Amino acid sequence: MSFLKQWKKEFVELLKSPIIISENGLILKLEYKNEHNEWHRNPEISPAFIWYYGNGNIYCESYLVNGMQHRLEGPAFIEYYENSNVSYESYWVNGEEHRLDGPACISYYENGNIRCKEYWVNYKKHKLEGPACIGYYENGNIHYKKYYVNDKMHKLEGPANIGYRETGEIFYEEYYINGRQKIIKI
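User: That's the sequence. What structure does it adopt?
Assistant: Structure tokens below.
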């Protein structure tokens, strides 16, 4: 596609009006769709859809390209609590959960503290250095750590699944190599 044709296509997309779904005078949803009725919007412009709570605060927003979640600069899906604090965010590239420079999925408690972080590469839980999943208690203490390589629980030296009490002491350990459980210590 020539530069001029691409520019015209993107310019037309900028001018496109959203589909607005409202009830009793309140906007519930703003959606952008392509000619195939798929959610679609250039992620550099705005989300492909935004849904709202009845109080007018945003419930969730998603960046999609031709029906697939996709965004290179920031999370492709963001969900909010009714008080506007972020509840959950996930990073997607071409329809797959994926992020190389940090966790691909992060969930939060309503007070803003992190509930869980997960590292995904090409839609697989994966992290070579450190745990791929870390859960936290609401007070910020670690609840669990899970080590994954290519979507299989795995750690050569030490436990691959560790559970902690809220006080910080370990209350279970599980050892895995390539997804196969070896030992459980409680």
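The mean pLDDT is 91.
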